[in-house]
Design brief:
2 domains; Arc Repressor Mutant, subunit A; alpha+beta; Beta-Lactamase
């Protein structure tokens, strides 16, 4: 009986962790705040259970309730924790100079994404646009792999079977966590079209997404690899994006050259970053 009780407690704890993570992910998509009943409805949980989870997050300083609207929202503690992690990885110092130079050269928005757990995550950016027409997307937005230049560049580096499996696991043609996102008119909607786009990206050495992830936006991207280790696994992507009025096909060749140059610089930086991190982790 005692063993059974301990097992039940273990499963209850795991379930609560899972619910809490789902709550955190949902809150992240509502920076202006969201009400208790809406949270409970979307999570398919009782009000009392969601209220207890929110209470725990509030007690730890991760969530606050607006005293006027009574909506729940993140504090800046999650953001601060993310920045501490990036600082520990030396990502800002190592990559920001490369991104800044690329943004200056292209006059458009540049981003760095890293491969982690079968997906891409945006980790750094630089804005090169000085005109009124600018592209400035939120860094916290999920990466729709088949609809973005960064996603297609990474998928093209994989075995096709693995690439398709990852895309379908994310949700195709619309990722499950982006149901309310407005995609562009050229969003890839068939597996044959996706295969064709990945083949083109492989042959060119870079990927292009023209009004796919978003209306009116064009992006180009390349992967960069860990040249300091055997096999040179893909670490991440570097991309340039901007309004279709400015980033037209006549500029593609020039931007591709600059992207490959930036990718090569990031590949050189990565082994140094790893050694720095390892050195900090070694006592004495």
């Amino acid at each position: 009986m005692e063993a059974t009780s301990k097992l039940d407690i273990h499963f209850l704890s795991v379930a609560n962790v899972d619910r809490c993570l789902s709550l955190i992910e949902l809150l992240a998509g509502h920076p202006a705040g969201i009400g208790l009943s809406s949270l409970a409805e979307r999570l398919d949980l009782p009000l009392s259970g969601v209220h207890r989870l929110l209470g725990a997050l509030i007690a730890r300083g991760y969530v606050r309730q607006d005293p006027t609207s009574h909506l729940y929202e993140f504090t800046l503690r999650f953001a601060a924790m993310g920045f501490r992690f990036l600082d520990a990885c030396h990502l800002p110092d190592a990559a920001q100079g490369v991104l800044d130079a690329l943004a200056r050269d292209t006059g458009d928005y540049c981003r760095l994404a890293l491969v982690q757990d079968g997906n891409l995550t945006w980790v750094a950016r630089a804005q090169g646009a000085t005109q009124a027409l600018r592209y400035d997307p939120p860094m916290g937005r999920p990466v729709a792999l088949h609809a973005t230049a960064s996603g297609k560049a990474w998928l093209a580096s994989l075995v096709e079977e693995d690439a398709l499996r990852i895309v379908y696991a994310q949700g195709f043609p619309v990722p499950r966590n982006m149901q309310n996102h407005v995609f562009g008119r050229h969003l890839i909607r068939t597996v044959d079209a996706l295969r064709q786009q990945l083949a083109i990206a492989r042959s060119r050495g870079h990927a292009v997404a023209a009004e796919e992830g978003e209306p009116g936006i064009v992006a180009m991207a390349v992967v960069f690899r860990d040249t300091g280790r055997p096999g040179g696994a893909v670490i991440g992507t570097v991309s340039v994006a901007g309004p279709v009025q400015r980033l037209d096909p006549a500029r593609y060749a020039g931007i591709a050259v600059r992207l490959h140059r930036a990718g090569a610089s990031l590949a050189e930086i990565w082994p140094l970053r790893r050694r720095q991190t390892a050195g900090q982790a070694t006592p004495g």
